[in-house]
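Kindly inspect the following:
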Amino acid sequence: MAEEANKAKQDAAKHLREQFIELCIMVSPPNVQHYEHLRVSRRESAVEEFWRLMRHPKIKHMIIRDNCLYVQVPTVIIQGRMLGEFLIGVNPLEKTYQIKNLTCPLEGDSAYYHHPHIYSETRDGGRICMDQNVEWEILVSVGHIADAVLLLIDALHQADDAGAYPSAQLFNWPYVK
């Protein structure tokens, strides 16, 4: 029974890897999609990107559904404050992303605060206010999905009260003892 479970896990990882590769190729510049030698090269680099994400210590889980990559980030703690676990949804075809706090969003008067620098009118999450949004869009535009995801994860692990939404300052999240 353990062998069957292990094989199922390996098959799921292979399927996820193939989905990731195809997603990277779909969002690559047109010349990569049309020339076989560039496509092979992009496939190899996509495999490296995939394993970089799979082995990353700040990634708990990954899935791909409807050409969107979803990455679960384990509990983020900043300056002794537990911000919670996050789900990052990246749609590289539309060059959009959304970040949602799964465990510890703050409810404000008319909004939800998923992070000191993420405001959303709904529980569904939103975009993080960061200086690297243009860099993120460039990375996605050239098909570097892993780098774009890692940029978002790094941003989640940074926060200060300067520029934070007033109701979402860091001290409003629970203190971890």
Notes: The chain has a mean pLDDT of 85.
